[in-house]
Amino acid sequence: MTKRVIHVGVGSFGRRWCSEFLTRNIADGTIEVVAIADVDAEAVALGQKTLGLPDSACHTSIEEAFATHEADFCTIVVPPEFHEAVVDVAIAHGVDILCEKPIAATMEASVRIARKVREAGRKMAVTMSHRFDQDKTTLRQVIRSGKLGKVSQVSCRYFSDMRGHMEWGALFRHTMQDPLLIEGAVHHLDLVADFAGAKCKTLFATTWKPDWAEYAGDTDGIVTMVFENGVRGVYEGSSSSATGLNDWTMEYVRVECENGTAILNNREIEVFTRQDIFHQRYREGMGQKLPLLQQPKWLNTWLIEKFCNWLDGGPEMETIVEKNVQASALIFASIESVRTNSAIEVQDYVGSFS
Ligand SMILES: NC(=O)c1ccc[n+]([C@@H]2O[C@H](COP(=O)([O-])OP(=O)(O)OC[C@H]3O[C@@H](n4cnc5c(N)ncnc54)[C@H](O)[C@@H]3O)[C@@H](O)[C@H]2O)c1
């Protein structure tokens, strides 16, 4: 049955929600947007025009939007520090929640939101969109098929050239303390953990801001991880790289397994399978190229549909808020590691907020 949605936030990414993710799901009857809300009247006007909504459906007060319209769920696309305020309003009106990543701007708030949602008996999922992109989903299928055997090591590289002021979309990324970890690595560390297939046990992180990065906080970093199943992970990230070798959606991910190696680089997947020969020496480019999976919806377009299926009694979303606390833990434990210059026991760190 078509689900009624209140959409909150029509900023730089919220505009894409309106023009693409919501629109695609409106077109096939998955959802109906009953209202939009943003504290900025110009943003509301843009959302209204894009979605073709009447004035009565458009609000600059979040509270008013929820008080005026009956909805099955809301979509939250405001900066992380404002997620909780919107979640509170949604809970007060008995509305389920599909929220942009990260859950919140701090670990305390992430754990608090998960608790509030559980206590209220509501459903909430987080849009870890990159995990649900076509290329990463194909790689996941290769790894989960088990054909390459047990996973040993996962490596992820993100190198984007957004070093100039406002090149990373919105002002808050240029003024915040940890833009790489909170706005970038939140996806990449989540991907590494997903391919590792377990919760993170221990991590060590180092981050920095090169002289040429027009940001207040650190744009570059390296994180090493040990997962509870023994898999090791390495992440290298930069939002101020000189040449943008692995920009957004073009990341490099290499999964080393017992019987082979799978590499995703700039949306191409190649697989190397161990042969019965002495001292194997392959080079990138010599592997078996795989076609990407095909399906109608990817990214948040797919996640909206998955969320609706979950509300209808279908499978639980992979990114329910309680599980997604682990994605928050990866970034906030990394920040703690940088601050203390020490390795962090991630599950003890999560436990310290309960
Ligand atoms: N999954 C992805 O690939 C991806 C990409 C970009 C952004 N995001 C996420 O989307 C969210 C929004 O990011 P953005 O780049 O659009 O930010 P933005 O600053 O460009 O826009 C945020 C919008 O929220 C509005 N807003 C702020 N506080 C509000 C409140 N309390 N109530 C209602 N509206 C409020 C602002 O007026 C603005 O229009 C963040 O959580 C970000 O991490 C995700």
UniProtKB/TrEMBL annotation:
Domain Gfo/Idh/MocA-like oxidoreductase N-terminal positions: 4-126
* Listed Pfam families: GFO_IDH_MocA, GFO_IDH_MocA_C3
Residues making up the signal peptide according to the UniProt record: none
* Entry superkingdom: Bacteria
> InterPro entries given for it?
Gfo/Idh/MocA-like_OxRdtase_N (IPR000683), Gfo/Idh/MocA_Oxidoreductases (IPR051450), GFO_IDH_MocA-like_dom (IPR055170), NAD(P)-bd_dom_sf (IPR036291)
Domain (GFO/IDH/MocA-like oxidoreductase): give its ranges: 138-261
Q: Which GO terms describe its molecular function?
A: nucleotide binding
- Name of the protein: Gfo/Idh/MocA family oxidoreductase
| Organism, as annotated | Pelagovum pacificum
